[in-house]
Specification:
Blueprint: H1 4-27, H2 34-38, E1 40-41, E2 45-47, E3 50-52, E4 55-56, H3 61-66
Antiparallel strand pairs: 1-4, 2-3
């Protein structure tokens, strides 16, 4: 069974997630670097009757998202 319309819709969602993630970095004055460049979406694929894609980025994105500043840095909440 093919799901071409659904694949196209998921590709649009993927692209919006990537675009908004990059815009959020820029708004937080953390854009323009390796993290922003690393944000990419994989192609929409079908496996076992499931459509999927992934959003990939540098591993340290989680720390940036939580507000950690630098190696050994402190989270904005002070913890």
């Amino acid at each position: 069974m093919t799901y071409e319309n659904l694949k196209d819709a998921l590709a649009e969602v993927r692209d919006l997630i990537v675009m908004e993630s990059k815009e959020n970095l820029i708004a937080a004055k953390k854009g323009g670097g390796a993290l922003e460049e690393s944000i990419k979406g994989t192609p929409v694929t079908e496996e076992n009757n499931t459509l999927k894609f992934q959003i990939l980025m540098e591993d340290y994105a989680t720390f940036v998202d939580k507000g950690v500043k630098g190696a050994g840095g402190e989270i904005k909440s002070g913890k």
